[in-house]
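Archive entry. Fields below.
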Amino acid sequence: MIRAHTELLLSPPDANGRFGSFGGRFVPEVLFEALLGLEEAVRIALPDPGFRASYAQELTSFVGRPTALTHARQLSEAWGAEIWLKREDLAHTGAHKINNAVGQALLARRMGKTRVVAETGAGQHGVATAAACARIGLPCRVYMGAIDAARQSVNVQRMELFGAEVVCVHDGDATLRAAIDEALRAWAEEPSETFYLIGSAVGPHPYPWLVRELQSVIGHEARAALLAQAGALPDVAVACVGGGSNAIGLFHAFRDDASVDLVGVEAGGRGPGRDAASIGSGSPGVLHGAYSFLLQDNSGQVRETHSVSAGLDYPGVGPEHAALAASGRASYVSATDEEAIAALRECARLEGILPALESSHALAGARRLAHGNFRGKRILVNCSGRGDKDLDILRTECGA
Amino acid sequence: MKTRTRTDELQRAFERARSEGRPACMPFVLAGHPGKARFPDVLGQVAAVADVVEIGLPFSDPVADGPALARAARAALAEGVSLNWLLEVLHARAHEAGAALVLMSYLNPLLAHGLDTAVRDLAEAGVAGLIVPDVPFEESGELAVCCARQDLALIPLVSPLTSAPRLARIGATERGFLYAVSRTGITGGQTLATDLDDYLTRVRAATKLPIACGFGIRSRAQVERIRLHADGFVVGTALIEAIERGDDPARFLSELRPETRS
Ligand SMILES: Cc1ncc(COP(=O)(O)O)c(C=O)c1O
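PREDICTED_STRUCTURE:
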């Protein structure tokens, strides 16, 4: 049963870009032709041996893949389960975001685009995009909410060193959502020349599909490495969910493994109403081009979100996660700011690994699973990024 | 309540302008701007001189709009403007004569209201057409069904980038008018498409419906250029800015309106 469901949902979206009833292309008419052009380019590039080879080459020699799989022995002991960490924090620029950025930048060059625009929340996608564009030789502009730019100022500096132009967005909520609004507007002004390099598995078709394909390297590597090192599959695979790119990248490889549970961890923030858990606390609607779950009021206005983690501070979620939640193939829980920070500290102290605040939500979720139904079980956690960027926040949040 | 059909009302508006030898004047106002209290008056003033009034429903993430409209929307939302509020305002003025009304709303507020209910409520409030800027033709199926049921025209948009085959499909729409976006980009920009004449000629060849042209229109000279190929002009950002400056909206529109010619 699960198997049949899964194949249906994790195969490419239908011709209209739908995963079940979620997804689609809800964009202004000026962007529609650009999406058709991108979709065609994706359909040709993804199976093309030449494109695959240059992507694989960049992943190895620039990104530093494959990333390690670490058996977290002390966390395992402390939590009473077998904890394995997929180390995306070791990827170049410090997070999984680079897998996607390099792939899309190669695609942009292949399509003959002359400039790249991107949005960023935590700054990790912006940094990854700036690095990929520097490497591939494309000018790039990154939109970043003013609040995020302040709380992740080191990443602003890094982007600028890579030659990117960083534009602070003061409008709206001045975080990731406002940055996406602004990047979409910039794209609409010059859709023929501009490549919009989106940072998560969100947005209109074909982005959720494209990003999933580029991020699925995470799950494929983790699955093979776990089989090699532990001789078995995990009982559950856990990832944090902002827009959902690291999670879908991890989940995809396990789609046909009926014995592997998939758990996404959303940002619980400071509790109900002050969170960013789109699936847990939201309802279906349309934001940023896709029909999916989102946090909104009764009138359909998108509501403000809160998370200590800038990368999870987003009111929407990728449509494939909405479909996975609806089908029951994956389940979604949340971790609060406080739980995430506690998990970060525990991981740092016990394992000598400093996870990003985003990834710490996955750890907090794993901890809860270990104390619940997965006691003594094998838990694979995606450590989607490193926490160096979060030192300022940790200092202000808890006087660390 | 109303005897004539709603889409007829739009047709009549374009016919009246054409018979007077001028393009239809189609101002855009934002529900609740400039403030909830003043909006009904602004709507009344504008409706008195316009052929069709587009009423925008504010949305929190208006990705097709430039800074002026986005700011105005944010202010209106802060005052609690919603579809329900707008419906009340429209019911209160239902007896007033004047321009035909079209609602422009992003999809999500309509979804939250329930598509079918939203379309029915709008129709009952005297709205003749609906423009949904984040629903391209290919995603419009469900909405089109709801609109047809209530005899509300679902107005499709085309842009200078719309391909010939898609333009042909969209142009075959049977009711209302076609909204030809005058530029590649968002509202409030300063420039019109460089190949505007060519583009509007292509649009004309693809449809039997009247063509309204809008986005970035702020001068009489632009209106003069557009009238060569289109049946109506939409003024949005420039009108919102005029209202914010304290100008009389009716006078502002009259100054944009070209001389009639027969
Ligand atoms: C390290 C890290 N993990 C996770 C995320 C969340 O994004 P996604 O849900 O697309 O993986 C971010 C976003 O900035 C991030 O920087």
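CURATOR_NOTE: The CA atoms of residues 254 and 260 of chain A lie 7 Å apart.
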